[in-house]
Amino acid sequence: MKHRITLVTTFVVAAFLGCESKPEAPPEPPSGTSAPSVSGAPVQPAQTALDAMDKRTPVPLLPMMANHQKQNMRDHLVAVQEIVSALATRDFAAVEKSAGHIGYSEQMGQMCTHMGAGAPGFTAQALSFHHTADKIGDAAKKQDADAVLRALGETLATCTTYHAAFKQQVADDATWTAATKMSPPSSAH
User: Fold this and answer.
1) Which CATH number fits domain 2-11+56-182: 1.10.287, 1.20.120, 2.10.70, 3.30.420?
2) Residue 140 and residue 67: Cα distance in Å, rounded?
3) 82-105 pLDDT, tens per residue?
4) For residue 102, how many C-alpha atoms fall within 13 Å in the half-sphere facing its CB?
5) In the chain, where the domains are located
6) What confidence category does residue 48 fall into, taking pLDDT thresholds of 50, 70 and 90?
7) What pTM was computed for the model?
């Protein structure tokens, strides 16, 4: 079993490092070029080159939403780390508790729907992650380590599928409103 936990830990680290991989050296854009971004600030030539290479679907988010989403993803990573650590010691109560942090809730569903309003397919993929994570807790309740590992693998597969398909695009109020057909949240100002 220790070998299996080591494999899972290696898989988790590799999956998340893959999300953070950097592209090969981008081609140099013409000197002095700069285009406005959706947030109104000028985009640097290197960012423009990266954006041209990254063909994933942009998810338009207001700055505070993008920051909130990134914090949620970091929290998800902590939960996954806790699950792996707890599973190594057969602490199924801790596995279940940590899985609950990434599982589905009405509040999480509303947040995913709101965040994905400007990117078709985003909400379904995000909700799939949370529903799949529920299986980790279900397996922990049964104290079934193999089922926990299978559910964790399935959950992480939804992560890699999501990150392969979508990227954040920080947007100003007008761009976000046009993409989502919604008014910006009042706390964005």
Assistant:
1) 1.20.120
2) 31
3) 999 999 999 999 999 999 999 999
4) 32
5) 2-11+56-182
6) confident
7) 0.74
How far, in Å, CA of 149 to CA of 94, rounded? 14
Spatial distance between the Cα atoms of 132 and 144, rounded to a whole number of angstroms: 16
Q: What is the mean pLDDT of the chain?
A: 84
Say if residue 189 is exposed, middle or buried (CB neighbours under 10 Å; 0-12, 13-18, 19+): exposed
What would the pLDDT profile of 112-158 be if each residue is shown by its tens digit?
999 999 999 999 999 999 999 999 999 999 999 999 999 999 999 99
Strand partners for 43:
35
